[in-house]
Amino acid sequence: MIAHSLPLLQNPGRAIRTPPGYCQCARGVCDQDYKYTTLSRGTFLYPSTPSVIANTIEGAVKILEARQPKHTWRSWKDFAVAGQTIFCEICRRMRFSDFIVADVTTLNFNLLFEIGYALGLDLPVVPIRDVTYEKHMMEFDELGLLDTLGYLNFQNANELANAIIEKQPFQRNAAPLVNMNSQQPLYVVKGPLSTDSEVKLLAVLAKSMLRFRMFDPRETQRLSLHEARRQVGMSFGVVTHLLSPERKGALVHNARCALVTGLATAAGKAVFVMQEEDVAQPIDYRDLVTSYKTPEQLSRQLQPFFNRVIEQMQDGSSDGNRAPSGLLEQLDLGDPAAENEIQALKNYFVQTAQFQQAKRASGRLVTGRKGSGKTAVFYAVRDSIPKRPTYLVLDLKPEGYQFSKLREAVLSKASEGMQDHTLMAFWEYILLCEIAQRVTDVDFEWAQLDEERRRAFEIVKEIHSEQPSADQEDFSERLLKTVDILVERFSAKGSDIHALKDLTAELFRETIPKLQKPIALYLREKEQVWVLFDNLDKAWPVGGATPADTLIIRTLLDATRKLQRQFAQHNVVLNTLVFLRNDIHDLLVKTTSDRGKDTQISLDWDDPELLKEIIRQRILRSVNVTGDFDTVWRRLFDGHVGVRDSFGYILDRTFMRPRDLLNFLRRATEIAINRGHDRVLESDIVTAEKSYSEDLFVSTAAELRDISSAYEGVLYAFLRQSVRFTPEELSKVISSVVPSEIIDQVIQILVWFGFLGVQEESRDEPVFAYQQRYNVEKLLVPIRRGQAFFVVHPAFHPSLQ
Fold first, then answer.
1. Sign of CA dihedral 736, 737, 742, 747
2. Can you give the pTM of this predicted structure?
3. 538-572: buried (b, 16+ CB within 10 Å) or exposed (e) per residue?
4. Final residue before a domain boundary, out of 138, 172, 206
């Protein structure tokens, strides 16, 4: 980071003391006059409530005025403007301040927007918080955005004033240097819940031809400040979706959106902020928010935003971004979420044995722990299939939540056998409709080359057009519409078991045969048909899937096998791959009598050399270096941390999954760049370990909470405890937060997650679940024999201590 104490008359990359050429609030050129604005040493921003904290901050400002009279100190209450223009005045005063002091004792959306805006202007920001006020502490941990800025803690006005004086000059948190991303110009902040509105939003974005990247809190629990600034910086447009305050997780998500919106607004990006329901908005950015009542309104409301993004792209506007120059600044390890790097992944995807098996259709199920690279394999297999008219590929990404309505309104009223029968019909219908949809979407020109093929194509097109979901352009929307129709028809027939039998019979006897034969006849000229399914279990908590959830998977597999047999009669080759988390697969195996009919391809990362190759390929793609792993690594990273080689040190603190490794390395790189280093030093790795550990702690705690509210405080029971436990000591720690009857269950969950491992007395190193392919029962055998003790994974040590 760069020390700064003088007035920011020449702010890097942008003259902030002149009105901006485009203001999101004014929807055009800024209409404010900066001519007579005076300079300030520091500007204090804070909520008016709680008043006891506001009074303390105002007291500190008076102390600073008395002790440093040569400098001007201001708080937002000094601005004396009407409520509707308050942010314009705050914006102006920010631009003429050496630094911004922002109170973050509570999660206040106005303040977070202002912090984001100040950071977007490249101003030093000093977060302060009253350590005696405990409200929102856990939410701040979950948010994580401000961790890298650090906090000035205070309990009274004098303490705060002293801290401000002692810590000067405050350092500017340098914005990362990025290239504009014209291939994926939009950045979307997704919510923790996949509502119908979010499905519609993503469908509209997908149809707009403007590709997008996403932050998905269900995949990555916390968004770092560096990553938020990097993603906003490379974008032409930013979309944030505010949830209703009544929804679970809305507080943290909406706070994240406020800060990202502030970053984007200051950087002059096109911004679209959508709000579920009519909700009173924070005054600073209420003019930026578009409310909607029905998802159908979004298409029309997004159009002006799309136009603004396209204008920026055509203008070649990069808002003064300076391209990365040094090796470390150029280093791009890619996004841990494969969805955000579909194109780039082609350049550095490592073709593992598991990928080759999937590519050859040697299995039907691809399984792995969250973050193990299932989605990367999904896209790699899809892209490896020849791009010829004789190949048809369906890449389907539903999400488990989309079946909740079907499960609750229909399946819950049926017997197990009837559920099975209904879901088989459902899946067979969905698969046939999707094949027909893909044929009509991509095969028109090819069909015109042969008269017989053209007639077969027209028959498929006509039959498909008769289906109720055919008017929807996105698979998620078609799936939701089909579920809605089933629920509606079921309710209309009386919502009992006889109604369900009638509905299923209608599908089997009429609709499915009507679709199946013409589609099979048309596909006879295809060499292969591929159906790839990912994300089915995305919204299901670990260990929390219901029998109905696993039934959804099992009947999908049964339906694909049935369709495979039917197509084979017409010499049509159908290959199916379903990508699943390994815990869902284990549950599926336990509840299925015929366990051997679906071959599993397991993504287990037990070879460090393979992970080295993944990192080497990503480094080679982004920076001008060559050589084997050791040569490339030492160009960018210190070789050792203490006496341990640095890559091994980092690997020991991850769960041997690509996503974990990438997250750690990105943290280390961020810290090194912020410190002005030209390579990642040992001290940067040690600091990154603390940040990564906190991220991992928060995300694991959230996953435990998703399983059951009873597990919510389990990890917190280990704070400032030993990292080694006998079984009796471990039970005592856990019993402080959960009932005694579920202690064994909690221990098994903690072992499965990798939080706890087993250290045998005769061995030097502990063993964790990912090293035993998540066979927890086998791992616990030495414990039950009294020959081992439990240990906490090293990745969690910094966050616990």
1. negative
2. 0.83
3. bbbbbbebeebbbbbbbbbbbbbeebbebbeeeeb
4. 172
